[in-house]
Structure formats: structure tokens, C-alpha cells
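User: Sequence in, structure out. Go.
Assistant: Echoing your sequence, followed by the C-alpha cells.
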Amino acid sequence: MKFSFKSLLVLAAFAPFALASCSEKTQENAEATAESAANDAAANTEAAGDAVENATDKAAAEVKEETTPTAGDTAVVVNKTTTTVVEETPVKK
């Protein structure tokens, strides 16, 4: 196949445009990838925050359940000296 000098010049003149369009596409792909990674990171951070919040709520509920007084679970401490064992129960109201 025979190329003329003019056709080679035309090809050489349009080659940078062809390369630029490829690099623009590559840049767009890189931007889309970066944006996708940022969205993934944000979603993962939000999910981790929700998991921490749920764990904290669960732990608080367990502590509250364990520390809630039940019937017969009260004691009265009186500071007085004695020589015998003292057992007193509070009067129920």
C-alpha cells in the first residue's frame, strides 16, 4: 500500500487529537473510579458508625437491665455497733 506525503501529514496532524481523546476517556474513567471509591468509603464509614451505635445501644440496654432493681433486691445499711448478727428487712410500702 502506497501512502503519499500529504496523507502522512494529515495523519500526523490528527494523531494528537486521537491521543488526546483517548487520554480524556482515561481521565473520565479515573474520575469515575475515584468518585466510586469515595462513595464506597462514605457508605462503609456510615455502616461502621451504625454498627457502633447499635452496639452502644445494646450495651446500654444490657447495663440498664442488669442494674434495674427487682422486688426484694433492696438493703438498708445502718451505721450502729452491735455484738450480734443483725438482719433487718425494710418495711414494704
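User: And one key feature?
Assistant: Helices lie at 5-67.
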